[in-house]
Amino acid sequence: MTTDKQIIDRVAQGLAGSSAGFDTDGRLHGRLAALAERQGLLDVSYRTIDSPLGPLLLAATGKGLVRVAFSREDHESVLSRLATDISPRILRTPRRLDKAARQLEEYFAGKRRAFTVPVDLQLAHGFRRSVLLHLRDIPYGETQS
Predict the structure, then answer these.
(1) pTM here?
(2) Torsion of the alpha carbons at 53, 103, 135 and 84, rounded to the nearest 10
(3) Please, which residues have CB within 8 angstroms of residue 116's CB and are 6 or more apart in sequence?
């Protein structure tokens, strides 16, 4: 089992000797994210996007999109819950969620009617899981009960 200290040490070793001290925060964060992903230290990626419904938090695992949260849900609380339910190894990695963000933006602009991003249903159980699985079969613009 890898301890938090071992994880921090591995990431620090990967950054040591580089010009990391001279990077901007954004570049350093990008390097940290890439290194964490390469070393298998990243379990949940997240980013936020603007939408007509307000800011949305997108979170994904290696299996696919695991959570979309509205701002009224308090994004920090959602991330905390993901850390508890999936893994505390969470990092803001916008590029990893570019495809999901682009598809949502196209949907809100009226240019997309179906999504092709993979979905991770590990947090959906019981009736909620059944509903989510059935949603795939409902054509755009239709409702079912």
Answers:
(1) 0.76
(2) -70
(3) 103
* Type of residue found at 13: Q
CATH topology for the 42-145 domain? Double Stranded RNA Binding Domain (3.30.160)
Contacting residues for 69 by C-beta, under 8 A, at least 6 apart = 56, 57, 59, 75, 78
For 12-26, the pLDDT digits (tens) are 555 555 554 555 666
State whether residue 17 is helix, strand or coil: coil
Domain boundaries, the chain: 1-41, 42-145
Cβ neighbours of 48 (radius 10 Å): 16
Q: Please report, as a single letter, which amino acid is at residue 66.
A: V
Residue with tokens 């409902």: 138
